[in-house]
Specification:
The complex is a heterodimer of chains A (about 280) and B (about 150). With about 280 residues, chain A is an all-alpha fold. Chain A contains ten helices and no strands. Chain A is about 70% helix and about 0% strand. In chain B, strand 1, helix 2 and strand 2 form a beta-alpha-beta unit. Chain B contains six helices and five strands; from the N terminus they run αβαββαβαβαα. Classes of the chains: A mainly alpha (about 280), B alpha/beta (about 150).
Chain lengths: ~280, ~150
């Protein structure tokens, strides 16, 4: 039983890692390049782990550890049918530790990245929270008790997840915190080697959690069909994010917050109002 | 651990530094990242961050002003690391040899693993040097690990 639980905790980030490889390959193909191998994200992690550890202070490493631990717990809560709201707050805590880690280094790039990461949190967390509220509005927030047919009832919540995913995947037009052009990866800038690998792993867990929420929307007939449909949905979201990434330039941080807080939250609110007027909730 | 040392060579993150180049070699280095030469197929990504870099692509003769900066950057890169001198100037100083304001080549300041000749160094030659440098990664990685232990 314990082994099965550990396996689930490993499969989540493993699948996300594969999706990151697929992302880089597809992005390369869209730009008419060959692109790196599919397993590139795993090579990167292995390489980072074999580098010499280098820290600017004890706190930096500690925050990275906390970050990955909280994100793993959030994903674990999700995978084992726990409470969605608790998982959401634990995941947010993980994101806050990323910001704290960035603040703990005396570096202007890192601090600017941390500020922007906070702004990104402000942009995507309310949307994610509204999605979770919409999922659980008929009674229970326990994932094991989520009713089927979410896609028919709250399709707009799934649409609202897309900008959240774009922000979390650090893609244009909302790659504001990482901002490769002027901040050189923002909050990650002072991390290196094994600690950067930890943060990358934390990101994979966080993405696994968000992809997981998206997969709640769709149910297949048999277990095999169910898994296939869920994977297909996650891939569709990823592909939409890649298309958006390759066709847009980065917008300002103000536009990011404005868009998600109006369009994102608005879409879900609209969906809920329609349901309310139809007498479903 | 041997596997880890080998896999590392498949993910060389790049730091490009211009120590006073005429920008000729810089343009060729940037061309590596374009669809035509696509160095990302070897896993190479330009990180623009010494702390996350594995391989330094240095262009230009090292001017006296840049000497300390180059050393500083090199020391910030955690081991294992590789250094590539891109172009004639970075290799020897070339036309700036014995100039009062240059150190004549990157290897007068930091250890260099691969020299890529050319004025400017062609992207094909740079890719060749890049792959050659990566063949040194495994032993470098092993040495760095043993030094830590």
């Amino acid at each position: 039983m314990v082994l099965a639980e550990i396996a689930v905790l490993l499969i989540g980030p493993l699948l996300v890692g594969l999706s990151m490889g697929l992302d880089r390959k597809l992005t390369a193909r869209l730009q008419n390049r060959r692109g790196p191998p599919l397993l590139q994200p795993f090579y990167d992690i292995a390489k980072l782990l074999s580098k010499r550890p280098q820290m600017l202070g004890d706190l930096q490493g500690l925050f990275a550890l906390f970050c990955v631990a909280f994100q793993a717990v959030a994903f674990g809560l999700f995978a084992f049918g726990g409470d969605l709201v608790v998982a959401f707050f634990v995941s947010s805590m993980g994101a806050v530790f990323l910001v704290l880690g960035a603040y703990s280094a005396p570096s202007p790039y890192s601090h600017l990245g941390a500020n922007r990461e906070l702004l990104a949190l402000l942009a995507y967390e309310p949307v994610l929270f509204m999605v979770i509220m919409a999922v659980g509005i008929n009674g229970s927030f326990l994932i094991s008790e989520v009713p089927p047919g979410l896609l028919e009832r709250i399709p707009l919540a799934l649409v609202a997840l897309l900008p959240v995913l774009v922000i979390l995947l650090e893609k244009s037009p909302y790659d504001v915190p990482a901002a490769h052009q002027e901040l050189a990866t923002g909050p990650y800038v002072e991390y290196s080697g094994p600690y950067l690998a930890l943060l990358e792993l934390a990101r994979w867990y966080q993405l696994a959690f968000v992809y997981g929420i998206a997969t709640l929307f769709i149910w297949g007939p048999r277990p095999a069909g169910d898994v296939a449909l869920k994977l297909l949905l996650a891939f569709a979201l990823l592909f939409a994010a890649i298309l958006i990434d390759n066709t847009t330039a980065r917008l300002t941080r103000r536009r990011m917050v404005l868009f998600t807080l109006t369009a994102g939250v608005g879409l879900i609110a609209l969906n809920l109002i329609v349901l309310y007027l139809a007498g479903v909730i | 651990m041997g596997l880890m040392d080998r896999i590392g060579a498949r993910s060389p993150w790049i730091l490009h530094f211009d120590t006073g180049s005429c920008n000729g070699c810089d343009l060729e280095v940037w061309a590596l990242l374009t669809p035509r030469y696509d160095v990302e197929r070897f896993g190479g990504v330009n990180r623009a961050n010494p702390k996350q870099a594995d391989i330094l692509l240095i262009t230009g003769p090292v001017t006296k002003k840049c000497e300390d900066r180059l050393r500083n950057l090199y020391e910030q890169v955690p081991e294992p690391k590789l250094v590539m001198a891109c172009g004639n100037c970075a290799s020897t100083g070339a036309p700036f040899h014995n100039c009062y304001n240059v150190c004549q080549g990157v290897d007068k300041v930091i250890p260099v693993d691969v020299y890529v000749p050319g004025c400017a160094a062609r992207p094909e030659a740079l890719i060749d040097g890049f792959v050659k440098a990566l063949s040194l990664w495994e032993e470098r990685s092993k040495a760095a690990r043993e030094a830590r232990e």
